Amino acid sequence: MEQLGIPYTGSGVLASALGMHKPTFKTLLTALNIDTPRSVTVLADHSVESTLTTVELNLGCYPVFVKPAGGGGSLGAGIARDADELAGLLRARGKEQYAEYMVEEYIDGIPCTVGILDQGRPAVLPPLTCETDRVFYDYEAKHDRGLRRETCPAELPEGVEQRVVETALKVHQQIGAHGVSCVDFLICPDGRSPVLEVNTVPSLSEQGSLATMATAAGVSYMEMIKRVLDTAFTKDAYVP
Questions:
Q1: CA-to-CA distance for 210 and 214, rounded, in angstroms?
Q2: CA-CA 20 to 30 A from 12: which of 19, 33, 50, 176?
Q3: Strand 195-199 with 180-187, pairing
Q4: Are 109 and 68 in contact (CB under 8 A)?
Q5: Does 2 fall in a domain?
């Protein structure tokens, strides 16, 4: 669409690529001194033995969280609580069509999302926390409201809320996102709130997190959709 000059909603090429490729995004977070789980990147064709060694040398402890380096919806993700479980996950992942994986330290916390919606300028929506009784906030929980419990506005300590709001806006701006994004955090008992990833193409479902956060901010669903559509015509010229 850039090549053909066709207007489109949301972020441009660079911001979308940074958001989609998790290892590159985490490198940017580290450069910006933004808290994020430690991780290593491994190729799908690496042997299980070499990957286990890499994880042990760089992370040094279990449990760990495994997910594709590019992708969404928690597809292909899982928790390994020891080396045997990690080996099993890696062997199972070898059958999937992902060329690259990320193994990161597992951090116990409540998933939290902070949305950004352009309202003439980027505006931060009320944070949303989501709890589930499943092993983690997986694809099924994200697509079945009966498997999760949402709170929006989230009930966060004042200092933590201010931090995630400021960090979400900083992430949105630093990757060059346009119009709309959602930044995912973990809210930990010790007050830590590491960034997991950024989604430059959040679901526009009426039951989705973005719509829930917009409603909490007093923005109706139809108004939210209108604002997203408007982002197709408010971009600056693309700069690679």
A1: 6
A2: 33
A3: antiparallel
A4: no
A5: no
